[in-house]
Amino acid sequence: MAATPPQIRLWDDNPSTLDLLGFDAVVEPIVAAVRERNIHPLTLSVQSPWGGGKSTILKLIEAEFKDDDTCFVVSTNPWAYDDQVDVKGTLISEILHGIESQIPDPSIKAKVAEKAKELLGRISWSRAAVAIAKGALTFQVDPKQIAEIFQPKDPGGPDSMAGFNDAYKELLALIPNVERVVILVDDLDRCLPDAVTATLEAIKLFLSTEKMVFVLAADQDMVRDAISVSLDGARRGDIFAKRYLEKIVQLPIALPRLSATDAEAYIGLLIAGRSMKETDLRVLAAHVRARRNAHQTPLLHDFEALAVKPAEDDLALATQLAEGLSADRRSNPRQIKRFLNAFGVRESIARARGVTIPPAVMIKMLLLEELHRTSFNTLAAANVQERKTMVARWEAWSNPSGEEGEDATLPEGIDESTKEWAAAPPSLSSENLDPYLTLAASLINVSMGAQVSDEVLAHINDLLGASEAARNVAADSLSERGEDEQLAALDVLFATTKRMEDGEAVIRGAVLWVGKTPALEQAAAAGVEAHCWGVRLTPGAVVELATSGRPALIGLVRRAAQDTSLHPSTQAAACEELEQLDGN
């Protein structure tokens, strides 16, 4: 009989209907605003950076109205639409079908369906005009039909969007006892700029109709930038985009970032939930909520009244993770899940290979690998006999209160930013780390990619931009960070190459950055070879390397001059630059 494969502990990235994050404090006022009779129509926006829990908020709001016959809820996601030519028409159509599908009375449903058909007829003409204007209709169309499509319509006629609002009000009037129609719009910040604007234009159509409430889940800065890009041809700037969004969104609500206490509870609930029934997890989540509302900490504590309690080892792991993760990653639910999944994969592979590594040790080593890659590489490269001595010195340096005569100097090649990591439990000086290091070395090409903060990502985007001033500011800001964080950010910079036609902008940014942080020179050279060589290496990129003044980067120019696999123009540029360099 084949052996049973080891169980892997993974956490999905789907929005949840079970509140593990303390979002009730946000959901309750949103629901109250939706139910408020004197405020309608209304548009709210739930705002947070990537991975902050916006989609979960929408699921929790939807659950609040599940048994409420006076409120219709329609969930939509413009990012997932197949028809990206006419997002506006698709959204309106989805709202109409969503309302119709929730009417239980057959006779009323038939009347609403007939009215919806009229409204959809207006949309069809609008869609045809959009498609032809954008060149999306490539089949032959009768010229008379095209002329009819673009001919001004009677504002009150069945083909005119001008009469849409009145017709929609008539549709709602057919449905008795319905006090609210709530439209939940997810992933707006993932949409392309034109789709963002089209979605907001569709929402604007409903904003003179009573009973309508829209709840948008999006990063407001990204939406505002998308509006600005979409309207760039009209020469409307960022100020107009800001005012346009403010006109549509009456009530912006920012999700709070997770505190250290809430992050520890969230991690504990995620880990404990893997071995609990859903009913028991709901009881535990309610217990945490009660302690949070009573301002009692730690949140995962005092389980005497619970029939099923979380394991002590799980709680210890949650505490260790909450203390070890960087503040930026600890405050982001998606980042927490990504780290837990990396841990789950390592744990599963270790079991499959018969390698025994205590979970607390694996967590601490994975934190070192993810947050301090240079120091991790130094430890992995050390002689097996030297590792225990190195770790002992490392921990003594981080907490210099050991026995007299103990060497408390920081080992060579270890970054000072690792002090908190080294001082945190458990101590590794007596542990055999070879199994973990061997496992990590075999997986290093498939481990999680470098994770950086939103602020660092913004600097990287500026570094790739057209503005020289913005690039200089970004390089200055990045160079002020710790070496490990800069190396992780440099990995992210080079990873963007796969989304570009060539690597010139990436190399230009890397050269500027290395000029301010010379310690990155070798890593930058390796990044160019790994990500920008071949067809992505342009003559302009060669010039950037040649004028960098850094030996490792100039060495790449010499290699390019000899590499016949490169484009002839790139190789010729390398030869010309070398002539100038060698001539000087």
From TrEMBL:
Residues 39-349 form the KAP NTPase domain. InterPro entries: KAP_P-loop (IPR011646), NTPase_KAP_P-loop (IPR052754), P-loop_NTPase (IPR027417). It holds the Pfam family KAP_NTPase. This is KAP NTPase domain-containing protein.
